[in-house]
Amino acid sequence: MNFLLLQINDTLFPIGSYTHSFGLESYVQLGKIKNKYDARDYLKAYLHTQMLYTDLLAIKLIRKAHCLEEIFEIESIIAAATSAREVLNAIRKLGLRFIKTINAIKLEQKAFFTAYTQTSKNPIYVVAYSVFCVAYGLNYQDSLCHYLYAQSSQALTNCVKLIPLAQSDGQEILASLHKEFDILCQKLECLKKQDLCNNAIANEIKAMQHQYLPTRLYMS
């Protein structure tokens, strides 16, 4: 068991992800997600678009990257494809907080991760996470699955708070997604760099609308 991987994916790892809904709050306030069935459908769509084509594919590509220049290109593509200003700010803030927290826990320094943190002008969370996993020799499949589960659990927690749902409903939904996790990992094997950020336009629009909501619980 790699406890370091568990630690950096824990919801208590203090990078501030709990303050962002990434467009989910817009869906709820506009009446598009009203119950546990809507929440499950939303999460499945989110996993098969944003999560698969951006986050998971980025982890895969960075694992295979040969140099920092390739990684910075991936980072720039993600930034350019993130149309919603609040979401772009969010993934950069999470990236900075991730790096800051890693430095604070005083692990043995790895040259590759240090070079990335000192060179990247606007680190993005999934990129910083991926570089960290590579630099510290964390197993690729474990790094991928831990990240997938942690991000899904966080999105589900936001659903439970916003709709709201019973905690048991949330756990029921999460259990129903286990098969989807396996499907996503299988789909990922066939994806290439040209597939990066092939996202869902509807979610981008809802993320843009978030800043205009009359009341908000989340920053994005």
UniProtKB/TrEMBL annotation:
<dbReference type="GO" id="GO:0005737">
    <property type="term" value="C:cytoplasm"/>
</dbReference>
<dbReference type="InterPro" id="IPR002639">
    <property type="entry name" value="UreF"/>
</dbReference>
<keyword id="KW-0963">Cytoplasm</keyword>
<keyword id="KW-0996">Nickel insertion</keyword>
<comment type="similarity">
    <text>Belongs to the UreF family.</text>
</comment>
<keyword id="KW-0143">Chaperone</keyword>
<dbReference type="GO" id="GO:0016151">
    <property type="term" value="F:nickel cation binding"/>
</dbReference>
<dbReference type="InterPro" id="IPR038277">
    <property type="entry name" value="UreF_sf"/>
</dbReference>
<comment type="function">
    <text>Required for maturation of urease via the functional incorporation of the urease nickel metallocenter.</text>
</comment>
<dbReference type="Pfam" id="PF01730">
    <property type="entry name" value="UreF"/>
</dbReference>
<protein>
    <recommendedName>
        <fullName>Urease accessory protein UreF</fullName>
    </recommendedName>
</protein>
<comment type="subunit">
    <text>UreH, UreF and UreG form a complex that acts as a GTP-hydrolysis-dependent molecular chaperone, activating the urease apoprotein by helping to assemble the nickel containing metallocenter of UreC. The UreE protein probably delivers the nickel.</text>
</comment>
